[in-house]
Fold these 3 entries.
Entry 1:
Amino acid sequence: MKYMLLIWNRPGFTEELSEQDRTALFGEVDEIMKELTETGELIGGQALANPSQTLTVRLVDGNPEVLDGPFMESKEQFAGYLAVDCDSPQRAAEIAARWPDVRYGGAMEVRPIMDEAGTEM
């Protein structure tokens, strides 16, 4: 089963870390990515640019309008994703729980990826 692990964190939190903590965090990410590559579970993933570079399209007065920013109410913003192919939702959650951003107030959302056949999982 394929899962999307959505990374949510507070923009700029890594700049608040000491250089040692930042190096350790990115080292953990590298270790997880290496492991998932070696096991064949990693399908893909990317970090996203700062939310200040975001455009949001919303319907305003019946017309699509492009607005600056993500306009989220929460402090956390969507920061990137991993796509994994693993045996169970528990394994996907295990991978997400190891992601270091979680320790710094972030969150990982684990969602099954819908099959190309349609909306049924």
Entry 2:
Amino acid sequence: MKICVPSSGKGGLDDLVGQHFGRVPTYTIKDTETNEIGTIENKSEHMGGVGLPPELLSQAGVDVMLCGGLGNKAVQQFEQFGIEVYVGAKGTVGEAIMAWEAGNLPKATRENACQSHEHHHHH
């Protein structure tokens, strides 16, 4: 299984969780079978590239996305690609993965998704 966390810098377990998943520079991916850590550069249309993050991550074989929060539309896009989304990720990428492994991150639903695209509130 591949777990993905949006990263605010160059990626890796010590990088901080990026709070706006579509605009982060990188995504850190942990393969739970091999424990390998990899990164994918965000080349989505949000960053001047092509495609949406759920599509790019689906092509990379991602099964689970851990993020701080995201909107309804994004939750639906991830669902279309068969990627499960969990919210409430914070701190470092490594801490977010440990929180998910411990069952401490709730699955994203239409109820706990951000209602607007303006992120002026704290999660």
Entry 3:
Amino acid sequence: MAIKKQYLKSKPICKVTFSIEAEEAKKVSVVGSFNEWNAKSAPLKKLKNGTFKGTVDLDKDSSYEFKYLVDGEYINDTAADAYAWNDFANAENSVVNV
């Protein structure tokens, strides 16, 4: 798992690339507070090495809760900046700070 951040000089945006190793998975997406937890909003593309990867534009100077949705199962990112308890999900969510 990995999170890569690329800040744009021209806009207050950060391009955040999410990646997760899931060789056996058929469908992976990143869901979070930045996309209303919509699985169709940010699908990740499977690479030849079995890693799923995708980039999302996020507003700078903000924090977002997120999880990976791997074949219907929610998974936290071990490389997250932090974790936050979510009463609605009754579980911890990964947090990315940009």
